[in-house]
Amino acid sequence: MGRRMRTPKKSHNSELQLIQSPQRLLVFTDLDGTLLHPINYEWRGAASTLGELRRKRIPLILCTSKTRAEIKTLRRKMGHVDPYIAENGGILVVPWTFFGKPDTEGARSRELVWRLGWTQAEASQVLSRLARRAKVKVRGFRQMSVAEIARATGLTLAEARKAQMREASEPFQIVSASTAQMRAFWRAARERRIKLAEGGRFWHLTMGTDKGQAMTLLIQLKEIVEGVQLRTIAAGNSSIDLPMLTQASLPILIPRPNGKFDPKVIRALPGAIRASGSGPAAWAEAVRSAVLQCEREQAADLRKLRPIAPANGWQALALREFSTLQIPEGHSKLPINRRRAASQ
Ligand SMILES: [Mg+2]
Asked: In the chain, which stretches have pLDDT less than 50?
């Protein structure tokens, strides 16, 4: 009670400024079957909401199992300039402009790239070891031809080639396994603290990274730079999105094309917003109303917008950290736990 808002005039003003600050909110979204149409990968039905986010200067962070090469093409078409998370949290890419650098051509082309998990070769080795042990027959991206990937995903050959340019993960399919063998596979993974997740068309294995961890890292960096706590919206359609959805202030679930929601996601997040259908137009409608809800809530509760750190001091610190951690294009160094992960 003693803390109750006997705020001096100056601080009250600064809180008002925070409300008006255009970057109070971050929107995270999965791509396949969420922002992109589940069958034809189309996004144009979401164009008006994408434009609205841009006008309001609310960053839209793409968070996907796609590779950097695939996302780059999509971003160019969409005119997307915000950060993105590739390969299920294995790669985090942050354009320089995200941290308040002037929005010029030069600043836009500079980006920081972190690899947060295994290399593809390491993931592939771990996968074959686990599969051998459990006698499960798997087929990873590395073993597949471009034509095979195109067939399995419905991508064109050129797109499939980009999907194969992986830097931090090895999606795979299960070719054959009995129930007992699958159980042994799960157990062997769990014992080594490896996570297995089923995406739309492929399985994924990760250790120490997922969409949620990359999301947290990005939010924390942004909060340090901004000096205020951020609210987040996240949209996804499958259990691989759960680590991201569970952290969002407002999670949005997109149903499958048959109108049903992923049961694992529903069980974990019964109170999440449920989109009215799948495809970019349904995504756009759900995200738009979530943004409006966030804006209403922010306007109604000034106290939620308390500054979390003295902005100037933290800004300087954060920018120094970034330059230490920066990994150049075609990076060969891992900042986090590479040795430990590889030796599992
Ligand atoms: Mg998806």
From this structure: 1-23, 309-311, 313-344
